[in-house]
Each structure stands twice: as C-alpha cells, then as structure tokens.
Amino acid sequence: MSLLPVSQFVGAILLPPASLAILLVAALVLHRRRPRLAMMLILLVALALYALSTPWVGGLLQKSLEIAPPLDPAALQDVDAIVVLAGGSRLDAAEYGGDTVNGFTLERLRYAVRLHRASGLPLLVTGGAPGAGRVPEGRLMQRVLEDEYGITPRWVEDAARTTWDNARLSAPLLKSANAHRIALVSHAWHLRRAVPEFEAQGLAVVPAGTQFASITLDAVSDLTPTPSGLRDSAYALHEWLGILWYKLRSLSSEGKP
Length: 257
Hints:
The chain has helices at about 5-15, 20-30, 35-55, 55-65, 105-120, 135-150, 165-175, 190-200, 225-255; strands at about 80-85, 90-95, 100, 125, 155, 180-185, 205-210. It is of the alpha/beta class. The chain folds into 2 domains: about 5-65 and about 220-255, no CATH class; about 75-210, HUPs (Rossmann fold).
C-alpha cells in the first residue's frame, strides 16, 4: 500500500488553513474550562491568518526557499539536457476538451521553452497521473509543448507521483543517453527540495528556477490579506514540511541494515 495518501493527509492538516481551523476548534472546545487559553488560541489563529495571508509574508517564506539566482544563459553551455518538473494539472478543462496542465506547470514549461530555444538542448518532462484514469502530467506537458510551442520533448517520464519519483524515474532515461548534467526547471521555491533528489541519483544539477518571489514592501497592498498571499504561504510551508519529511526518510533509510 502506498504511503502517499497518508502523507498527503498529514501534510494537509499540518498546514494552513486546516491547521488554523483545528486550533480554532480547540479554542471553542476549551472556552468554558480554560477561557484564557482559548482566547490565546483565538488570537494566535487570527494573527497567523492575517500574517500568512499578506503577500509580503508569503514572499518572505518563498524567498527563504530559493537556493540560486536566475540562471545565467552561459551556464547552459556545459549542460546535457533540460528537465522540467510537472506542477499539477487541471482536470476536465472544458475549453480544452479534457485534462490539461495547470498554471504552475505552464509557467515551468514556458521557461523551459525559453531555455531550449536559447541552447538547443533536449527536453525531458516528468510527471505522473493525478489519479486513476487520468492522463499523466508528463503526457499533458508533451501535448502543450507540441501543440502550442512546436517542440517535441526528447523524453517523457509519466509515472512520477512525487519529487523523489521525478528524480528516481528520470535519471535512467537521462543516463541512457549519456546526459549527466542537467538544468532543472521548476519554481524557484521548489528547487531546494528538488535539486538534492536529482543529485542523489548521480546527476549534476544546475538550478533553473522561475517565478522568483518578491519581498518589496512599498505599498499598503503588500500588507493587505489576500487569498493569493495565503496560497503562497501555504505552498512555502508545504515545501519546508516536504524537506523535513525527505530528511527524516533519508535518516531512516541510513539506519537500516
């Protein structure tokens, strides 16, 4: 049995907004017996919800994950291939006649196309199916590249469900073509977790991040709570939680005989 659904559930309840909702429910349960503690929990939830919903805090959290500046095109001279990680899909997109890539994946593809056209390097796209009977994200990425950009990826990996899978399943495809040094395309906040996974497979990795975070504080709107601010914070906290999980898994594996 796969542990993926369990880890996804645990991750969901540890992250906002679910974690904040759980604290709020706890405050409601405690408000008669421990009114002071209940009030502290309510204030904590209110403060956390406000802070995490501001674009500035969301930007700070995402900036804390970035490991490299925007890629210098000159760095592609020593690269053998460009690897693009899927970032999700839109299911049953009526205007496209079915499943298609979501905004995150499209942002990564767009940047990968830019690098491909500047360098001529072959592309590998990687991403599995989000559920039974669904089109793998790798195939959706291939479709977008071919139909909208006129580019055919050299390799399509279509079974990966996690970042670890992306690395584990892509490495043999690359090595079979003697491609050992890659430019890894993903969101800048995702590469802190993704790069070590590909390096662990024996590949040399050049981080190729896109959508770098802004931490400017020059307008009232930067401190105004927004749904997108909470989303950015949640994605950043999800990454830090994922990094912790991968480290714990690695330590557990090292301890086995």
